[in-house]
Amino acid sequence: MNLFRSEEHARGWDQYRPESDEGFISLPELVGFFGTPSRQHMLDADYLSRWYPERAAERREYLARIGKASPFWLGTPSPSA
User: Fold this and answer.
1) CA–CA separation, 25 and 54 (whole Å)
2) pLDDT band at 49 (very low <50, low <70, confident <90, very high)
3) Pair 24, 67: CB distance under 8 Å
4) Domains in the chain: boundaries
């Protein structure tokens, strides 16, 4: 994973590949991704039994809401792979 200060900076990188555009995520979107309810309860004593089972569904729902529902974001193989 590489972190860049902007999409423009990433596109100027000598190893940039256009098909990687799908991997761009803005800071506000990233904050939302890590701000789901289950993440806010990670230190709770009942986290593993109460919150962890909901985490994957929350992440999928949030990613779909921000338009990142492709195999790249969901961790599933691409049909063309």
Assistant:
1) 23
2) very high
3) no
4) 25-69
- Record the pTM: 0.71
Rg of the chain taking only CA atoms, in angstroms:
15
Distance in Å from the first CA to the final CA of the chain: 21
Token output for 36: 């789901």
Q: What is the tens place of the pLDDT at every residue in 18-36?
A: 887 888 888 899 999 999 9
Q: How many CB atoms lie within 10 A of CB 38?
A: 18
CA angle 50/57/37 to nearest 5° reads 55
> Beta-strand (E) ranges in the chain?
none
